[in-house]
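lol forgot to send this yesterday, sorry. struct tokens for the thing we talked abt
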């Protein structure tokens, strides 16, 4: 089944709108869900309250209990970047952070590793650094190429032979530069769990956009996420408990709207 496009100003609002829309569908799933976030790098007090509500649910009702920030770190490790800066944080991540993640029997959280150590027959390649350097050169030049910045995550030679679940859920990233010097990002997911992963994914993609924009001298623009298959997972919670969590988040938005209108 197909869902109409969902557009929201922030990550938390986009997560809630998309989750409620997909949850209302038969089987709590949908195909080709398109989510637009106007600014995925900002977080208001209202957004923070929604994130806290979701974090509490994740701790109580999921096996891992990973909060939103942990999921975001799988796409862009913000604290490692802040501690080491660019480009030193690439090596710091591979030598210090990623080995800890590999201890997980599920081998979870490999997105950033795949960006900076993409497996090839000649060894790992830092595709993100290559993309950033190319974009920086072109932006600094007299005529910037605007539509040539692609970053694959899914590797068919490696991922298709692994887990029957198919490996990486984030498949592909496409960066664009518009005429207003804004950086745009489209991200494609082959399978997307909206309760455990979507909000963290949006936050991580926003961090990644901010990093690339800062490096290349651009302004962060809109983020678009395409979930080719989306499901609103509920962990060990009942559907009633999941709906109640959504309702509490909606109440946070309604209260903020009342304050703004007063």
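and heres what i got for the seq, position by position
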């Amino acid at each position: 089944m197909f869902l109409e496009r969902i557009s929201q100003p922030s990550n938390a609002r986009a997560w809630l709108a998309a989750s409620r829309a997909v949850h209302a569908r038969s089987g709590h799933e949908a195909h080709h869900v398109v989510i637009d976030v106007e600014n995925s790098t900002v977080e208001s007090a209202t957004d923070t309250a929604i994130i806290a509500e979701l974090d509490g649910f994740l701790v109580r009702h999921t096996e891992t209990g990973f909060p939103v920030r942990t999921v975001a770190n799988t796409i862009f490790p913000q604290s490692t970047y802040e501690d080491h800066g660019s480009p030193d944080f690439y090596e710091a991540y591979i030598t210090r952070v990623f080995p800890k993640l590999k201890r997980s029997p599920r081998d979870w959280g490999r997105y950033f590793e795949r960006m900076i150590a993409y497996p090839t027959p000649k060894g790992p390649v830092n595709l993100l650094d290559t993309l950033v350097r190319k974009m920086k050169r072109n932006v600094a030049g007299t005529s910037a190429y605007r539509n040539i910045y692609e970053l694959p995550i899914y590797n068919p030679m490696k991922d298709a032979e692994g887990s029957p679940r198919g490996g990486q859920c984030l498949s592909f990233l496409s960066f664009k530069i518009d005429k207003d010097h804004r950086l745009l990002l489209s991200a494609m997911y082959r399978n997307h769990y909206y309760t455990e992963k979507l909000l963290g994914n949006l936050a991580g993609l926003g961090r990644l956009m901010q990093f690339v924009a800062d490096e290349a001298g651009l302004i962060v623009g809109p983020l678009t996420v395409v979930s080719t298959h989306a499901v609103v997972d509920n962990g060990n919670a009942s559907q009633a408990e999941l709906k109640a969590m959504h309702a509490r988040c909606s109440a946070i938005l309604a209260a903020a709207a009342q304050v703004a209108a007063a």
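The longest strand covers residues 219-231. anyway ping me if u want another try
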